Structure prediction request, 638 residues.
Amino acid sequence: MSKTTRLVALLALGTAVATASPGCRKSSAAGMVRVDGSSTVFPITEAVAEEFGKVHPDVKVTVGISGTGGGFKKFCAGETDLSDASRPIKPTEVEACAKAGIEYVELPVAYDGIAIVVHPRNDWAQHITVEELGKLWAPEAQGQVLRWSDVRVGWPDREIHLFGPGVDSGTYDYFTEAVVGKEHSSRGDFTSSEDDNVLVQGIATDELALGFFGFAYYDENRDKLKLLPVDDGKPDNGDGPVAASLEAIRNGTYQPLSRPLFVYVAVKSLERPEVAQFVEYYLAEGVPLVAEVGYVPLPERAYPLALQRVRERRAGSMFAGKGSMVGVTIDTLLEREAAAAPQ
Amino acid sequence: MSAPSSRTHDLAIRRAELAPQRVFQAIGLVALVLPLLLLAFLFGSSLVDAWPRLDWDFLTAFPSRKPALAGILPALVGTTCLMGLTAAIAIPVGLGAALYLEEYARPSRLTMLIELNISTLAGVPSIIYGLLGLEVFARVLGMGRSLLTGACTLALLLLPMVIMASREALRTVPQSLREASYALGADKWRTLRGVVLPMCLPGVLTGVILSLARAIGETAPLITIGALTYVAFLPDSVHSEFTALPIQIFNWVSRPQAGFHVNAAAGIVVLVGLMLLLNGFAIWLRARLQRRVYW
Prediction:
């Protein structure tokens, strides 16, 4: 009996040790910066948090991946200081934030492209137009556009299998806005996954597949996938089909499937010095890190403009809270930045 | 003339009777070997992928954007703390509920309803518990995305299993022993404390540890309650924010760079190792405690 008691005590002690032990010891908490949101933006914020932690070891930065939509839910509930977003804030989210009294500054931090890919053995499709993509992904296409020949005359009369990111992702929202014309609206009969690697695997093993996801996932899997150049039918930003590449995303010719990535910061949180420090660090030192994790940085002159808006707490969205907006090149973004900054 | 023929006839019958048994035996063997092979294959392929990253640095480094430098320290510590806290919450509550249902409750409609609910709860998908935890613990009770929220949520997830395992264990204690205790003048509480609890403890603890080994791999509820992905510090109290191994693995698996996939494999090996350790501990504990119990 006594031995049993001792064992139980030992177990309890073990539990206590596990809960309170070396790992769980007290450390000086100088402040916290809570970030959540898009998994697309995560690598950038992670890199900035990592470098920031070296300079300010007393500030604890946490980054979550709830998705752009999930991130805004937490942000507008006042649970986070910054929200990673792969599209601008939407009207419903603007409303939720307004209701909770959360004001925010919108900071574009990088550019990303959405790649359209097919199986490497697909020898019929060499490029695709935005119009064809729209026809293929529109809600009306469900049950109607089921074969390659339905998309373009001359393509084989074989089934087409579609792959895309989950509907909670900003990538999906932006893509639908860009090709269907209405954000968050598409056919439902496609294979979707929150994990882009699942899409890569799916497309790489299916000859009849066509899918879209962030450019970085194509870049890392070039040997398994075939990239389809996209033609937006507008000769002024690159004539004919343009293949996604870091250069084409940077110079604005890969349209409409290039998009800015954002970080939103709550104005109230900026009053805390650690949050202000983190945001300033993000804008000042983020450029090389953006390139390192596989995205296209904004031109150098974009960051001071954003910094100025942070310092002056200029709240609101440059996109009028309308959500995804198509055709925002780096230059137009800068014009909006400049217009948003005080004269 | 008739004798040998009837003998062969008997043999044939016996063989015919034995045939289904043989077939069943074979099916049983395949059923045993197949999952084991699958497990060995999965673990083996993870181990092969993970090998270059399995070193001390991996266990003691913080996450990083550079796959080769990234480690799992916060996730490992987070998981350990989470499991300890979960056990600390689930054991008293689960055992208490089981004791009440087995020893005190009289059969009634209410008890039946409770029992029905417990067995139903055992089958509820874990993400539902995550949603419950997010609303009740994180938001209403204001515990935020803390270790405590995670532990409470996981404890809820485990409770039906802990209660059922504890009740099974309580039932294995022979009625005659209780009666002997009563005959010696002990009241119900003393009987419980002195006879029933020590005897059922091995069963209870085994049940708890095995359910913990399941909870250690739970990702969905933790993601729902908002466990984080990049955490470059260790939890300093139960109110601290945290990350856990399944979440770290989930994040690495979904990154584009192959280097992170290697890290994910290494994380999986560590997680499976931790789970085997827990299971081994359960076996040891049961053997150890059972030796104390004779009648």
Residues 273-292 of chain A form the longest helix (20 residues).
